[in-house]
Amino acid sequence: MSSWLYSDKVKAHFMDPKNIMFDDEGFEYDAVGTTGNIKCGDEMTFYLKIDPETLTVTDCRWKTFGCASAIASTSVLSEMIKGMKLDDAYSISNVDIMKELGGLPENKVHCSVLGDKALQKAIDNYYRSRGMDDRVHETESRIICRCLNVSEEEIEHAVLEGARNYYQLQEMTKVGTSCGQCEEEARERLAFYIEKHFGNDSKDSAQGRKLPGR
Amino acid sequence: MNRIYFDHNATTPLHPEVRKAITGAMDTFGNPSSLHEDGREARALVEDAREKVAALINAEPEEIMFVGSGSEGNNTVLSIMSCTGAQCGMHPPVNSQLVVSTIEHPCILETSRCLENRGIGVRRVGVDGRGLLRMDELEEALESDTSLVSIMMVNNETGSIQDIPRAVELAHAAGALFHTDAVQAVGKLPVDVKELDVDFLTISAHKIYGPKGAGALFVRKGTPFCPLIRGGHQEMGRRAGTENTLGIVGLGRAAELRALEMDAEEERLARLNLLLRDGIEDRIENTHFNSFPEFCLPSTLNVSFLGVEGEALLLYLDMEGIEVSTGSACASGSLDPSHVLLEMDLPVEYSHGSLRMSMGRSTTEEEVLRVVEVLPGIVERLRMMSTAYDGSCR
Fold first, then answer.
1. Residue B213 region, left (φ>0) first, then alpha (ψ -120 to 50), else beta?
2. In this structure, are residues B45 and B249 in contact, taking their beta carbons and an 8 Å threshold?
3. Nearest-neighbour CA in chain B from A105: distance (Å)
């Protein structure tokens, strides 16, 4: 077969995904987290078995309604987190998974975020269920643009969907297109999420351009 | 591994006879516009091809102009909407409303959005659950200010065949011109432009075993026209640019062969389609067929599997050497699943898991049986790992 759509490692994990939750296996778990939505075309659920003494992931399973990239990246992630402290597992970033996978096409990155988002939800749910609320990471998404009610989460989403400079971000989210006071903060978040998901190479390429405020 | 190509609506391999015609013309390098012998030789090939394409759809040769693709043909027709007549001197439509269906190919939908941005009114007519145009909506959309109606003859995703004669009748009664994107229809079912009474019709070579990069546009004699590509006298001043002689030769030969092979082949494909459909229905639960045999091309079968994501399904099939398409969002690179299936009101749980299988002249019964054998295992495998499919559905 000629070169495959994705890297060999993606292909290997897609062909033989690890740690899938099969109903008849009867896997017992201490925490579960789901993210995504069938309507958007992908959904992911992570199941964790956790050692309460050491707060370590001892085993895990997952399920998805997702594409090849979602399947492969979650398979890799599920192998990475076994034996890991919960807080270390929580901080695994998309860039780490990409590195492990040998890369994904940019338009596929948003599929691969699904696995670590579901994992993070499962970890937060575990802390909550054990009354360890101080350890919960998830906070309500902060509003950056108060005029048009654009949240951090929307900025992150836009980055995953291809926004690489402030102009594109504005086109996609309308951030800072009214009073414009949030520009500095929005640019900072933009750079943060680009680096988080795509590393250093994809910095804002059109620093100066922006949509005019009203 | 033997590959099973079930993606003929995407493109087709060259017919061996088309290949022969193209290779035979490769040394005919002359510019068809040149007056000397090399030029005249090339001109003869182009005009011969024009006659063959005309014959396939019962048009006059001078009503056929060659274009670079089906998309170019469609863009050309829509571009007459923004013609002012000042430059080209042709007779632009006086009115300024365009009517299209909601399941057109993106080259119509995006172009009409672009026209809309330039101030041209666009009305969109929907389809029913079978993918058939809502004639009552069309009737409503047509007003005295409608100048052009563009409705595809056969949908590329589901194979649904529209009632073009009825739509033409309505459009003409309202005084509008009628265009049909017949890229998926010509060469697969009988098309007679005189009987259909259409004003414009688009053809593509690579969907009918011809080469990529060649297409044709039928423009009824006397119909207002405005070129999309200007600056040359080629194609009666309708499309500037030196003719793609090899592509045109290939299209001509492909058209000629289609006239000979089409009828018998469609009968054979209808049998295979039934075999495929029944095989899937018998072996896989919770499926939804998006192609309806009474209204669809026999070569196309579009089916959705509950709880299964289409891109993953496509790639697992590819590993088995089976090549298909999907309407899944993930395969398209956007977040939206197939606009055609959404317009048909297919529930989203199904629309992300659609598979388009399109057969052709090389398709055999063994291939169909192999697909029917392999598909259930892959669907089952994906359903076992799916968050959107639980045992209670079974």
1. left
2. yes
3. 10
Q: Which residue has the tokens 């290997």?
A: A12
pLDDT at residue number B108: 95
**Domain(s) of CATH 3.90.1010.10: residues in chain A:** 8-135
CATH class of A143-202: mainly alpha
Predicted structure pTM score: 0.86
CA–CA dist A164, A158 (Å, integer): 9
CATH 3.40.630.30 fits A8-135, yes or no: no
Instruction: Record the tokens describing residue B128, joined without a space.
Output: 């029913």
Q: What is the CA radius of gyration of chain B?
A: 22
Print burial letters for A7-22: b (CB count within 10 Å at least 16), e (below 16).
beebbebbeebebbbe
A190 touches chain B (CB under 8 A): no
User: Which residue in this structure is represented by tokens 């988080």?
Assistant: A196
Q: Strands (DSSP E) along B126-182, which ranges? A: 146-150, 177-181
Q: Is the dihedral of CA B158, B159, B160, B163 positive or negative?
A: positive
Q: Look-up: residue for tokens 């695994």?
A: A92
Say yes or no for a CB contact (<8 Å) between A66 and B309. Answer: yes
Scanning the structure block, which residue is given the tokens 């052009």? B148
Burial class (CB in 10 A: 0-12, 13-18, 19+), B240: middle
A14, B315: Cβ pair inside 8 Å? yes
Question: pLDDT tens, B116-160?
Answer: 888 889 999 999 999 999 999 999 999 988 999 999 999 999 999
